[in-house]
Amino acid sequence: MRRALVVLMAALVLATMCVGFASAAKPLPKLVLLSGDSQIARLYAQGIQEMIRKNLGLPLEIEAVDFKTRLQKMRNNDFQIVFAGWGADYDDPMTFLDMWITGGPFNDVMWSNSSYDRLIDVAKTSPDEAVRMKAMSQAEKILIGETPIAPLYWPAWNFVEHPYVKNVVRKTVGSDFEWKWSYTEGRPGGDKDQFLRMNFGEEPPDLDPATSTDQVSFWVINATYEGLARKNPEMRILPGSGLAESWTVSEDRKVYTFKLRNAKWSDGAPVTAYDFEFGWKRAIDPRTASQYAYMMYVVKNAEKVNAMEVPDDKDAKKAEKNKAIDDALAAVGVKALDAKTLRVELEAPTPFFLDLITFITYMPSPRHMVEKLGDEYASEVDKMVACGPFKVSKWQHEYKIVLEKNPNYWDAKSVKLQRIEADMIKDIATPLNMYDAGELDLVGVPGTYIDQYRNKGMRTIAEATAWYLEFNCEHEIFKNAKIRRAFSLAIDRQAYVDYVLKNGSLPATSLVPPTIHGKDGVSFHDVYVGDLLPKKADIKLAKQLLAEGLAELGYAMP
Amino acid sequence: MLAALWVIVTATFFLMHSIPGDPFLSDKVTEAIRQNMLRKYGLDKPLWEQYVIYLGNLLRGDFGTSLKMLHRSVNDMIRDGFPVSALLGLEALAYAVTIGLLLGTLAGFRHNTWLDYLAMFVALIGISVPGFIMGGLMQYIIGLKLGWLPIARWEGFRYTIMPAVALGLGTLAVMARMMRTSVLEVTNQDYIKTAKAKGLSQREIVFRHVLRNAILPIVTILGPLTAAIVTGSFVIELIFGIPGLGKYYVQSIFNRDYTLILGTTIFYAILLVFLNFLVDVAYGIVDPRIRLMRSRE
Amino acid sequence: MRLSSAQEITQDMFEPLRLGTGEGEAITRPPISYWREVVRRFRRNRLAVAGLVILVALLAFAFIGPLVSPWDPREQSLFDTNKVPSREHWFGTDNLGRDMFARLCYGTKVSLFVGVMAALIDLVVGVIYGGISGYFGGAVDDVMMRIVDILYGIPYIIVAILLLVVIGPGLWSVILAMTITGWVGMARLVRGQVLQLKEQEFVLAARALGASHLGIILRHLIPNAMGVIIVQMTFTIPGAIFGEAFLSFIGLGVPLPLASLGTMANDGYQYLRIYPYQLIIPAVAIIMTMLGFNFVGDGLRDALDPKLRR
Lengths: 558, 297, 310
Prior knowledge:
Oligomer: heterotrimer
CATH architecture of chain C: Orthogonal Bundle
Strand content of chain C: under 5%
Order of helices and strands of chain B: HHHHHHHHHHHHH
CATH topology of chain C: MetI-like fold
Distance between the termini of chain C: 31 Å
CATH superfamily of chain C: MetI-like
Radius of gyration of chain C: 27 Å
């Protein structure tokens, strides 16, 4: 009797399963694109929505949320497709590629590919530039082929400046504005007073180079500090361009020895190799809790120390743990051999290390000030010093900041500008009105105003940034690479930049933007990668891939 | 009053902590570093513990350090920003009250004349056009095209006119309409007829009887109107680049700047409660009936 | 005729008026119910009628417009963006090439919905809360009004933004954000009315006849306060539409694919200097809505106020 029941049950279960298999495929669940909630973000998301609807016949919903909510959802893997972007931290393809390795800290798509991981590892450890380039280009091909992300466009920055404004350089990587060589010529009212009026858009939240992370603070820090080198207007890094007069590199390319020049802080104290060691270690020290500490991880032992546990005040073993951190910091690969010599040891040969030394986190910290002021350093004008072309001379919080030429700067003779005055107006229309009224000298043109300034001398500069769709590779639909690729191919990138963005952005036919350099200063994209994706949509292939992918997953084509 | 503040603090505290993300979440922060930053600022502790710590600091008048502007204390930010916002708000209120009452009174006494229609037209524009459109239009036309007033910045009286007018316009409109209705109502009352019959001069009637009584209902809405000006200041300060407090309470939420969210909320709550109290007092002064009642008690 | 003091007043100058029984009690003026009187006075107010016409026109536009227009408000045409008004696109197209006429119909509908729903929620919550508080008075009133005072002290915008970020974007989130503190005004108003009315004789009569508390509130107090409540509603609706426009400015208006007059005005504001029609069209719609409700509200208030009866 009991056995019969079991048999009956088993039969029932089997029957249900058979019916399940035999019945029509599952209906497609609701597809949602997560996007930002700004005006522009909504516009761009709707452009994608339209292309997917038109070219794949799929309805795509848009969920527009504020910046932090979107990031949190990405971190929680709580999304299907998300509109995301990444700006280069340094001028090497690696800044776009190592984020997609298995378990990488920014790999929100949960994609994993062992060949990819191996290639990135080769590129990270090989001292041979040619080998690196080959490995990275192969890796990028795998990435685009498997499509955990679908590159969309490489953005451009548009701006207008009055004709008398000369030599305001905008760098594609790192701190954007470079004013060291700027001047005016032919300003109505004369050029005797050399100054520049800009709008920074917001208060610089943190002018301490060891902890600073945001764009506006970077502008100010780049102008008021100087690292071991400073990029020239052509984005090249030459010895003697910064506070290091020269440097040597060891045979295995892991040890750099920098020879510092005579330089002074704006308060007259000398800038020494100790200030560099102190500044770098301060960024690495987990007690500083610097967000950009990961930029220092190429330095030997830096990552290990940065990951150490920080004791809180009530910790019984506080002194012990603090000492452990101090000891570990002593073993970090940066050391001032004397006041003029800095020795840096790296984890691996890192060809882009010379680019990193121009990054804000690699700036020196004035030890004599920081040890006195602690966390208050750089909070007010009288609580900071400068070693770059300019110094902060006036800072009215949330309103205005004035940078003045730093007479103690070692290359002060090259600096023509006496003053940079910057407003902090967040509204988009106001600065443009002020520019038109002659109250600002240079102003960025946001997307919605492009049409108006297109014929008024607007200039466009390509940025080292890529925007793309991220697919959640653990989602029931988007775990299928064919479907992901179908979405990517359904997007007409050329039409997207021409008719939706309309701001001089380029269609992204691969991930790494053409502005990023490879070996010998050539464009990595142009020379080593090429167009991995078509500029126009490949609707036929996209539809075919979608049908195949859905069939594999057992979903009905809508 | 204190209980009210406690409720506001508590509700805001737990509400804001339930928003996804935290002050240190950014697209360029690794999870490990983020946890370390949270620990440094005590945000890894259990929520109730953070709450107790916050309340303790609050009792000492310490709003804490901003979690976005890591070098600035919320007290400093309020101290710097509030006088600017207050000045802007008071100027806006001054325009709104004087012009609004004047328009309303004229409209009321010249009922159904072109003056009435003009006044009500101005009032309706004020009510119907959102602040961000009005501010933007004024800036573009008066500031840029006509060049009469500065486009933005905050350097002196000339710089305050346009933002204050843009900010006060809505309130001005409400004032004018209420005053008009109020005047109309009062002029129909029997005591006005009595006053006329007594042979009082027109001037005396207007000032001693009509206006005095007509203004009563206006005083009661001063509280909400001031709140409206506080709210509107966000948009206006943003458009005209004014370093006031208004922008903080929107930005702080998007930045998850917990201490600043709480600081501004508490500060504004105290301010509004205080203003409502002032209104009560003012009402007592203006309305003799209430004054009498109080003195009897 | 002026009588000289010299003239004598004599008996024969007067004549008795004969009155039938009950004739003295007759009402010579035709009987008019309260509401018919209201309608009559409302119709005499030209502005109020104009307001009503505007509102009816807006409603017609929102609901009949889509039937007239061949365009879908959501359909983009990336090749026809920012086209000025023409025969094909009556109100032009926006930055994604969507027909502005169809979108405006749609946006008007959404905005009206937000406004009306917010007003209804305010109404229900406010009337119940204010009614109870005013009717029972004493300690109940004290406690309930304390709570209202607390809510009054919170800047509405902070609550609205916090709430929208916490519960996420959505049509109902926006409505909730508008009402979370908005009902307070209605509650205060109703309480004031009830406080006044409950002292009147008809309430006493009802109580003497054994009516329950609920019955008194619902049958006697609320209907008598209805005029004030309706007037308040005609101001709440445009207030909510306005509030939604403000939230749109911060990026927290109704979410996609919805559009409201607020989000449209904000989109258009960005193009003010180059495609002014994109701002003007939704702005005019907002202004019309505001005017309509305000005119009607003013008219109703005057019509409902017996003191203004002439």
